[in-house]
Design brief:
By secondary structure, this protein is of the alpha+beta class. The protein has three domains: 73 residues, Rossmann fold (3-Layer(aba) Sandwich); 94 residues, Luciferase, domain 3; 106 residues, ANL, C-terminal domain (GMP Synthetase, Chain A, domain 3), CATH 3.30.300. The strands form four sheets. Strands 1-2-3-4-5 form a five-stranded mixed β-sheet. Helix 5 packs across helix 6. It is globular and about 55 Å long.
Length: 287
């Protein structure tokens, strides 16, 4: 087992070339950096027979870019510290693009609405999981434990839907779902649409409180190295062609996207930035 000190190309590529590992397990953000590295080539992935990713949504663009350089797609999975790896695309079965796979043996799941009733196939619901691998509780926090574990079922806080073949599809974190004019919008879906644009490197999407619409969609984006900056309206129209009404109403350009400790877009920090900007605009005096 090789554990790199970092997740960028200059750290990973020498390990691939020297040790020829057969399995690659990385966060999507790290895989994006790896396949975009100018020094990476198909020969660097010749020994890899399985690439698994989880911790965040694997975008369609990342799937295409990785497949182009490695010759096979990423095997997306799903897990949490509280439950372990509970879903994975079968390594020796169909790897259904965009899905986090099927339930791992030993796990039971339940997709529920806000009332606690199970939802039908194809309808998004909150994922509850039960297994012998579940945690027994949060350290010295009985209140959080009681809120998360009910009758042996653990509330993941994630919204999922399941198709008729048992493949699960991630629909966003319950707390991060944006409600605009009564419609639920998954930030990851909008982010994926924006990163399809040839100039955009990363995107982070949050909901901003609005008295008329409930929440408006705001996107923060960074540019690829050497790319010219498109207008905000161009990006909004680009996203609208792909996700319709879910497209952002506002675009903000950043020099660097804030990431959390696991390499995911830090939407909490983006929300804090938005709140600070709003506070500054309301306290500023007349020019």
């Amino acid at each position: 087992m090789l554990i790199p000190r970092g997740s960028d190309g200059p750290e990973i590529l020498p390990l691939l070339r020297e040790f020829h590992p057969t399995i690659l397990w990385m966060l999507p953000a790290a895989l994006i950096a790896l396949v975009r590295d100018h020094d990476a080539g198909s020969s660097d992935f010749a020994s890899i027979r399985l690439c698994s990713a989880g911790g965040d949504k694997v975008s369609a663009k990342l799937e295409r870019d990785f497949t182009a350089i490695a010759g096979f797609p990423i095997d997306e999975s799903y897990g949490m510290t509280e439950i372990g790896i509970s879903m994975i695309n079968p390594p020796y079965g169909e790897n259904r693009m965009g899905s986090i796979g099927k339930l791992v043996p030993g796990y039971a799941m339940s997709l529920r609405d806000d009332s606690g009733a199970e939802v039908p196939v194809g309808t998004p619901g909150r994922l509850w999981v039960r297994s012998q691998a579940n945690m027994i509780g949060y350290w010295e926090n009985p209140k959080a434990t009681a809120e998360t574990i009910v009758d042996g079922w653990l509330d993941t806080g994630d919204m999922m839907r399941v198709d008729e073949d048992g493949y699960l599809w991630f629909c966003g974190r319950k707390k991060q779902i944006i409600i605009h004019d009564g419609s639920n919008i998954c930030p990851q879906e909008v982010e994926e649409a924006l990163t399809e644009h040839p100039s955009i490197a990363e995107a982070g999407v949050i909901g901003i409180h609005d008295l008329v619409h409930g929440e408006n969609v705001r996107a923060y984006v960074t540019l690829k190295e050497g790319a010219s900056q498109p207008s905000a309206m161009e990006l909004i129209s680009f996203a609208r062609d792909r996700v319709g009404y879910k497209a952002p109403e506002e675009i903000a350009f950043l020099a660097e996207m804030p990431l959390n400790a696991t390499g995911k877009v830090d939407r909490v920090k983006l929300l804090r930035m938005a709140e600070e900007r709003l506070a500054a605009s309301t306290t500023a005096g007349p020019a």
